[in-house]
Amino acid sequence: MRQSSLVVVANRLPIDDSMAPDGACEWRRSPGGLVSALHPLLRHTPATWVGWAGGTGPAPALPDVDGVRMHTVALSADDLRDHYEGFANATLWPLYHDSVEQPEYHRRWWEAYQRVNQRFAEATADVAEPGAVVWVQDYHLQLVPGLLRQLRPDLRIGFFLHVPFPPPELFMQLPRRAELLRGMLGADLVGFQRSQAAHNFAQLVAKVLDVPATDRRIAVDDRVVRIGAFPVSIDTVEMAALATRPDVADRAARLRHDLGSPEQVILSVDRMDYTKGIEQRLKAYSELIADGHVKVRDTVLVQVAVPSRERVGQYQILRERVEREVGRINGEFGRVGEPAIHYLTQPFDRAELAALYRVADVMAVTPLRDGMNLVAKEYVAARVDDTGALLLSEFAGAAAELPQAYLVNPHDLEGLKQGLLAALRAGPDDLGARMRAMRAHLHRHDIRAWARSYLSALDDSGSLLTRLSAAD
Ligand code: ADP
Ligand code: G6P
Questions:
Q1: Cα-flanking dihedrals φ and ψ of residue 461, to 5°?
Q2: What percentage of the chain's residues is helix, strand, coil (to nearest 5)?
């Protein structure tokens, strides 16, 4: 078995199997914030990524992707149902997102979660060279740091949670709360998107495990676990470069023409997820049309909603409701050749996304709760001419970093409508000043700055950082 000095462990590999139009199997980059964040960082770095390839049955042998070794962990049909769709996405995901949907608790799901975490820990122990740095990602794998430390105490282990970490009163609902906290404490450094999350974690460790904890350090067994906020970001330069490519500019011009050359385009790009506030946004838009504040001929909404976790009941219900609502709004307010909403469920490549961002006069990012939201950052990075308005939910992690956005509370329908109108009606000077400030922030705080700050905190010897910089 080949071993690496840097191992990333995430439920999902950065590539996903999907069907090509001719029915053949092809591999493409998987949508989602975690992959978007880590992919540019690891490109051309000798590392191994341990993860699941998206199907069931035996693990496929995958080629290296951009120099990164893919080490696949197999999930059986039961694992998929009980670990991925069950404990990860029907227990933890809703609980961590303010319980905007009801979390479900089943003992069988917890057993699968333990089993799959054990398998990931064993796979990681196999591919990590002595003294390697291992970086475990996200809520699917919260037990891995603890399990891996038992197998390989020589490793330097980091854990980063891409989603929110909930306040104690919510987390306390979890039947196996102590085990989950102990699992995370197997890491040397536990990173969160926001300092409030680190604070929630410290409070819970003190309360549930009776271990003294501050928002920065926790002494457990004979070790110190550090905790902190490391807001994740994007490859700002890459997105700006994409957005300025002549073919992307041409594509954007064609898109605007195909949309009927409206005066203004509103764009939303989400995974089809109940945390994203899609229904609230559609309601706000349709009320603005009904009130006469927005004319469909002048202003169109493009809603991209790529299906996600499609076998989980709450996701199926959401998709049906969104599609019914899109149909209703188009039926009521559209005309032949002039729909009020252009609704797209396909995954797009990066260039097509950049073209969409270029077309959007207003980018509406209004989740009910979101760990960060990289789409908001990608839009800002793509607006190289400092035009365009970002409408952003206060409940997205990105809001803490982008206060120049039009900030809204997506639960407040009137506030959402007013925010959307303000963004649509803003003048170029105001928009330019806001966009410049946000772009400057993202140039300083890009994906490399995120990785540098996390990895320098994790790996005090600094050797890993030197290698990552050399690979840049
Ligand atoms: P989440 O992590 O909840 O999926 P984020 O906004 O943080 O939300 O990240 C979503 C990522 O997935 C972004 O990088 C975005 O560009 C990508 N993405 C979203 N929709 C699509 C799509 N239709 N096609 C390709 N990539 C997409
Ligand atoms: C969020 C999670 C990631 C996840 C992604 C896509 O970004 O934080 O861990 O990979 O959504 O979701 P999926 O269920 O398709 O992996």
A1: -70, -20
A2: 45, 20, 30
- Starting at the edge strand found earlier in the chain, the sheet holding 389-393 runs 341-344, 299-306, 264-271, 362-365, 389-393, 406-408
Element (H, E) at 93: helix 93-96
- Please check whether residue 1 is in contact with residue 125, taking contact to mean a CB–CB distance below 8 angstroms: no
What is the average pLDDT across 385-392?
A: 98
Residue nearest ligand 2's atom 12 by CA: 32
Residue 210 CA to ligand 1 centre (angstroms) = 39
Atom 5, ligand 2: residue with shortest CA distance: 32
Measured from CB, residues less than 6 Å from any atom of ligand 1 are 31-33, 36, 269, 271, 304, 306, 347-348, 353, 372-375, 378
Rounded mean pLDDT of 322-341?
A: 97
Rounded CA-CA distance 225/388 in Å is 43
160: which strand partners? 137, 191
Amino acid 31: pLDDT: 60
- Alpha carbons 155 and 131: distance in angstroms, whole number: 5
CA pair distance 362, 376, nearest whole angstrom: 11
Q: What is the pLDDT of residue 57?
A: 86
Q: How far apart are CA 394 and CA 419, in angstroms?
A: 12
Ligand 1 atom with the smallest distance to the CA of 34 is: 2
CA distance 153 to 149: 5
User: How far is the centre of ligand 2, averaged over its atoms, from the C-alpha of 213 (Å)?
Assistant: 29
Report the SS3 class of residue 42.
helix
Question: In which residue are the tokens 């997205």 written?
Answer: 396
d(CA 203, CA 108): 28
Helix axes 350-359, 236-244, angle to 10 degrees: 70
Evaluate whether 164 touches 97 at the Cβ level (below 8 Å).
yes
Crossing angle of helices 246-258 and 350-359, in 10° steps, is: 60
Q: Is the pTM of this model over 0.85?
A: yes
Ligand 2 site residues (CB inside 6 A) read 12, 32-34, 138, 162-163, 308-309
